[in-house]
Amino acid sequence: MLEVKQREEDSKGSFYIESEGRKVAEMTYSKAGTDRIIIDHTEVGGELRGQGAGRLMVESAVAYARAKKISIIPLCPFARSVFDKNPELRDVL
């Protein structure tokens, strides 16, 4: 099973998946003030393509936003497409 981890430093952060100690998928974001984050890039390595890793990272970002009571601006085309296809995630937009 894929496990999404998160790291945050100052105004930047990422949700990522590791395999054997290396990142195989990552979605990066920037903080925009205290009440929103901007998802700017999503990258999934070939070994995880088609396994839902990207969507899993978006869902982790949504859970994070809900817990922090902040909103998400999905500038990344992949993240935007996940929100477009899944109305149940849009409460954080």
Topology diagram in text:
Elements: E1 4-9, E2 12-19, E3 22-31, E4 36-44, H1 53-68, E5 71-74, H2 77-85
Parallel strand pairs: 4-5
Antiparallel strand pairs: 1-2, 2-3, 3-4
Tally of DSSP β-strands: 5
Q: Topology as H/E string?
A: EEEEHEH
Q: Beta-sheet strand percentage? A: 35-45%
If you compute it from the alpha carbons, what radius of gyration comes out, rounded to the nearest whole angstrom? 12 Å
Explain what you see.
The chain has a five-stranded mixed beta sheet. It has helices at residues 53-68, 77-85; strands spanning 4-9, 12-19, 22-31, 36-44, 71-74. It is globular. It is built from two helices and five strands. A hairpin with a 4-residue loop joins strand 3 and strand 4 (36-44). The mean pLDDT is 97. The protein is an alpha+beta fold.
Which features does this protein show?
93 residues, alpha+beta, 5-stranded mixed β-sheet, 5 strands, globular
Short description:
The protein has helices at residues 53-68, 77-85; strands spanning 4-9, 12-19, 22-31, 36-44, 71-74. A five-stranded mixed β-sheet has the order 1-2-3-4-5.
